[in-house]
């Protein structure tokens, strides 16, 4: 029996996973326990939970795999230093970070006093971990594999081919050129300064037109080998030390762009400046430029390999809009993007890369995302008893419905009546998306539901879209393409005749970021949507993450707290249905 502990540490979205004999046992991001978005540092809480879930201690772990290797791409590093002569502070800071990251074994011993760690630690190159996380858990025996992100181990992009358990990297784009840095710089320029705000630009893009694409082509240039390069006069990251906090709290970074970007595109948007057509058009143009570079790479890779299946990873693989266009724009016909393609997913990639490096066979396929903590009905009942006074003050009625059919029928009725429902079930999702176990569900037919959720529950920008969770059998009837999208990582066009029926989940350009729901992987969520379909004729519900400007809820207590402090109508905690009594 072999246990591998996979880690993404000392970086945003720190995480841990546990692999037992080549099969994933548990996986979770540290932010869910610390309650700080994108928490960065050493994931001690996630590690502790993974070990507890498996019923083992640190002494039982044979290997620790970390998704970074300071020795990787050394030739490219030395060449850059010699030719570009970067600021000395930049070099010294990277050396300091490298030294801090080298002490993973010591940090494990500090985090778990009294538990002797006797295993080995392994450094796995950042993009190899990404590529492994994409391919080795995919359903494909053979596929092209691509990783695109900001940076990791001096590279921003890597591509290659996976066959069986083997994975070959055939090309890279090295520092300082990066599509992730390009997109992040535009995100900052548009007035979204926080780590991970790129999805806001993606959500803003459908409202605009690509009128600034020619300017974007001056920023990003395509290369004949399928790669790309940045015009570095628009960027700071290669010459100056970017302020980045990673050892505690929410990660932050300083501006990545120079005044040359404002000279090209106009003054940056202020934090409180209203959004308007110029901002929408820049967002759309940046998305168009990303897609142009992305598909340029994919076209080259398809021509070289002749393969029709592709697996994607890296932070940029969260760009579900581009992912959903792959079949239309390239020769690839089947696409796999797992539940956590960003840096959190590197924990799984590091573990599986090590497993296969040691000769382990393939067999595990990630076809669902439910790898986090679960809580029994006893824990829920104890919580509700302890919080009885709070529930009474909020005028809440609590019912326990042990019959699943009745529970789903009652919940579906609430959704159909226009209620906002918190849905807390089973094991927490792995990755950034709520996928039916830590979700808020609503009626997709209501044109005003987007405004209701954004204003009263989510308290976020009004342009931000919501997603449909769709019964897998109904996808071809409602969408122009058909594929399994269990992790909400692709955007498809909704059929034109259906768009008016589901306005709450239809984007401005007629698309939707769907999640396909399978009876085999989440039978209770499937039953809820079927019950809603029986009432409405619509085989989907609006699904958004169960949170309010915080990490997605993990424990029942967090779900109850979120319910009570917002204007949510109904909370379903396992078999317990809690509803507010309205005048």
Average pLDDT reading: 92
Name of the CATH architecture of the largest domain: 2-Layer Sandwich
Number of strands: 22
Tell me the major beta sheet: 8 strands, mixed
CATH class category name of the largest domain: Alpha Beta
* Percent in helix: 25-40%
Rg measurement, Å: 23 Å
Number of helices: 22
**Sequence of strands across the biggest β-sheet:** 13-22-21-14-15-20-16-19
Indicate the overall shape. Answer: globular
Question: Can you characterise this structure?
Answer:
The structure is a single chain. The protein is an alpha/beta fold and 583 residues long. The protein folds into 3 domains: 3-127, Nucleotidyltransferase, domain 5 (2-Layer Sandwich), CATH 3.30.420; 131-340, 2-Layer Sandwich (Nucleotidyltransferase, domain 5); 377-580, Carbamoyltransferase, C-terminal domain (DHBP synthase), CATH 3.90.870. It has 22 helices and 22 strands. The strands form 5 sheets. Strands 13-22-21-14-15-20-16-19 form an 8-stranded mixed β-sheet, sandwiched between helices. It has a 5-stranded mixed β-sheet with strand order 3-2-1-4-5. It has a 5-stranded mixed β-sheet with strand order 8-7-6-11-12, sandwiched between helices. It starts with a strand and ends with a strand. The mean pLDDT is 92.
